[in-house]
Specification:
Homoheptamer. The protein has helices at 2-10, 12-49, 54-79, 84-101, 103-118, 158-162, 189-202, 237-254, and strands at 126-129, 132-139, 143-147, 153-157, 166-168, 174-176, 179-183, 213-219, 224-229, 231-233. Helix 2 (12-49) packs antiparallel against helix 3 and helix 7 packs across helix 8. With 272 residues, the chain is an alpha+beta fold. It has a 5-stranded antiparallel beta sheet. It has a 3-stranded antiparallel beta sheet with strand order 7-9-8, with helices on one face. The chain contains 8 helices and 10 strands.
C-alpha cells in the first residue's frame, strides 16, 4: 500500500497532466458530437428553406454529420497524445481492409450518391424499388426509408434499389386505370358496352382528356372480355378504381348482363 502511495506522490504531476488531457478530450468529444448534430440539422433546414427535396437534404445532412464527427474523434485523440498523422495512416490501412470486408456498405453508399444525382424519385413519391413498395420518407447514406400504406417502415439498402427496376407511381400527374371486365357470350355486346360507358360517364374523377377506352379485347374461353381504361389524377387512382369495380358490377346486374365465373358441371351416369 505504501509503495502505491509513494508512486502516486512521485507521479502526481504526470497523473494530473494526463487527467486534464483526458477530461479535455472528453469535453471535445461531447461538444463535437453536439456540433455534428447541429451542423446536420442546420444543413437539412437550409435545404428545406431552399425548397430542395427533403430526401436530398437528409442524405447530405447525414454526410455532414459523419464528417464532423470524424474530425471530432481525431481532435479528441490528438488531445490525449495520440499522434493523429500516424493514426490517420493506420486508419487508412485499416480502412482499406475494412472496405474490402464491407463492400456491400460501400456499394450502398455509392448507390445513395447515384440516387441523389439521378433522382429516380423524391421524398413523398410512391414507388416500387428493391422489390418493396411504399412512400419515400428519406434517403440516407446507406439506405432509403419507405413507409407502406398500412404505416409500416421498410429500410431498403440503396444498392438493392439501384440494382433493379424502379417504378415511380407519383412522378406523372395522371395515371390510367386498366380494368378487364368479362361478360357472358349470351349478352348483347352493344348493350354491355353502353352500360360500361354510362358508369364511366357518371364518375366525376375520370378525366375528359385523354378520353377513356372501352373495347372488346378478347373472346375468352367462357366470356367476352372488355378493356376499360379511364384516366384519372394520380391521387384519385385507388378511390376511383374501387368505385368503378363496385359500380360496374351493380350496373351490369341491373341490366341483367351476367359476369361469368369458373364453374364445374358434374355428370353422373347410372350403370345398369
Amino acid at each position: 500500500m505504501d509503495s502505491v502511495l509513494n508512486w502516486l506522490n512521485d507521479n502526481s504531476g504526470l497523473i494530473l497532466h494526463y487527467g486534464i488531457q483526458a477530461v479535455v478530450a472528453l469535453v471535445i468529444f461531447l461538444l463535437g458530437s453536439r456540433i455534428a448534430k447541429f451542423c446536420s440539422n442546420l444543413t437539412e433546414k437550409g435545404f428545406a428553406k431552399k425548397k430542395v427535396d427533403k430526401a436530398v437534404g437528409s442524405f447530405v445532412s447525414s454526410i455532414v454529420y459523419t464528417l464532423v464527427f470524424a474530425v471530432t474523434i481525431l481532435m479528441a485523440l490528438s488531445q490525449i497524445g495520440i499522434e493523429t498523422t500516424s493514426f490517420i495512416a493506420i486508419l487508412g490501412a485499416a480502412g482499406l481492409a475494412v472496405g474490402l470486408a464491407l463492400q456491400g456498405s460501400l456499394s450502398n453508399f455509392a448507390s445513395g450518391v447515384l440516387i441523389i444525382l439521378l433522382r429516380p424519385f423524391k421524398s413523398g413519391d410512391f414507388v416500387e424499388a428493391g422489390n418493396k413498395m411504399g412512400t419515400v420518407k428519406k434517403i440516407e447514406i446507406f439506405s432509403t426509408e419507405l413507409r407502406t400504406p398500412d404505416n409500416k417502415v421498410i429500410i431498403v439498402p440503396n444498392s438493392q434499389i439501384m440494382s433493379g427496376a424502379i417504378t415511380n407511381f407519383s412522378r406523372e400527374s395522371t395515371r390510367r386505370i386498366d380494368l378487364v371486365i368479362g361478360v357472358s357470350y349470351d349478352a348483347d355486346l352493344r348493350q354491355a358496352k353502353e352500360v360500361l360507358k354510362s358508369v364511366l360517364d357518371a364518375e366525376t374523377r375520370i378525366l375528359k382528356d385523354p378520353a377513356y377506352t372501352v373495347a372488346v379485347s378478347e373472346l375468352g374461353d367462357s366470356s367476352v372480355n372488355f378493356v376499360v381504361r379511364p384516366w384519372v389524377n394520380a391521387a384519385d387512382y385507388w378511390p376511383t378504381y374501387w368505385s368503378l369495380m363496385e359500380n360496374i358490377k351493380i350496373a351490369l346486374d341491373d341490366a341483367n348482363i351476367a359476369i361469368p365465373f369458373p364453374q364445374m358441371d358434374v355428370h353422373l351416369h347410372k350403370q345398369d
